[in-house]
Amino acid sequence: MLSYRHGFHAGNHADVLKHAVQSLILEALSIKDKGFSYIDTHAGAGGYALAHEWTQKKSEYLTGIALLWQHREQWPELAGYFGAITAINETMQAPADTLDFYPGSPKVAEYFKRPQDSLTLMELHNNEVAQLRENMAPQGRRLAQHYSNRSKGPTIHHTDGFTGLIGLLPPTPKRGLVLIDPPYELKEDYQTLAETMAQAYKRWPIGIYAIWYPLLAKDVDRSASLKAALAQTGFDNILCAELSVRQQAQDFGMHGSGMMILNPPWKLDEQLKSLLPRLAETLGQDPSATGHLAWLKQSDK
Ligand SMILES: C[S@@+](CC[C@H](N)C(=O)[O-])C[C@H]1O[C@@H](n2cnc3c(N)ncnc32)[C@H](O)[C@@H]1O
């Protein structure tokens, strides 16, 4: 039974890290005219109304994206990410400059998509996939015509993202990004992820893969064993970007999150090295907040 609903957490510090990294990678892929493939294994609902009762329950975006949004001119390196946020608010006809809606990873990817690029989204939860289809449908007839003239919309599969991914590899176009963002509700997700990546390496070793993972309390954190398992999957270049916003507790709670990037694009390490400490400074909730970048594996080639 799947109970995780991303709407409760939309725009929090973990989304900021994930979508900032996702945007930087898609920006790098957009430098060349050649098309890219984007695959989202755990897509969620696509986009979120911040006034929704679920999001309002803890208003996690207030200690996440809202803190950057109000000073966005100070973050030129995140212009692409902010562009995706502006785009969803404009599409939903929110008043100029307001932050009423927040893009999930599918909407972030849609913002970067050009006619030559392809988007494939997978989601297993019945209600979330229905929302995803609705949110990714062209808005209104005029827009529908606009879209059909320029490019194909995303392909959406109601399926398991781990097995679904293997069936899609290698994708066409043959360059691109896979975003893997499981809820880790099931303990097996960690093991399944590592096994999936070993298979993905055999089918598409040159793809860029960005994997989100939580940083949890000492008694329950599994990030170290996840890293150890991913280091064995065959990929030679693995970058880990971690943002911790508060002190790690002993028994319960998420104090931050990480993005593991397999085959990161050129210069992403430099971009993240300067971005992460600034994110920690802005999103930190106590003095122990840190932004940390490390190569888990790096080839000498
Ligand atoms: C963290 S949310 C995704 C958020 C989204 N990637 C974003 O950044 O906006 C995880 C999603 O994975 C879905 N999910 C859980 N297990 C799944 C599976 N095995 N395959 C595909 N989706 C799954 C959940 O229903 C949930 O919507």
TrEMBL record:
S-adenosyl-L-methionine binds at H19, H42, S105, E123, D160, G161, D181. The record marks Y4 as: Interaction with substrate rRNA. GO terms for molecular function: 23S rRNA (adenine(2030)-N(6))-methyltransferase activity; RNA binding. It is an enzyme of class 2 (transferase). SUPFAM superfamilies: S-adenosyl-L-methionine-dependent methyltransferases. Belongs to the RlmJ family. Specifically methylates the adenine in position 2030 of 23S rRNA. This is Ribosomal RNA large subunit methyltransferase J. The active site is at D181. The keyword Chaperone does not apply. Signal peptide: none annotated. GO terms for cellular component: cytosol. Keywords: Methyltransferase, RNA-binding, rRNA processing, S-adenosyl-L-methionine, Transferase. Gene3D superfamilies: Vaccinia Virus protein VP39. It catalyses: adenosine(2030) in 23S rRNA + S-adenosyl-L-methionine = N(6)-methyladenosine(2030) in 23S rRNA + S-adenosyl-L-homocysteine + H(+). The keyword rRNA processing applies.
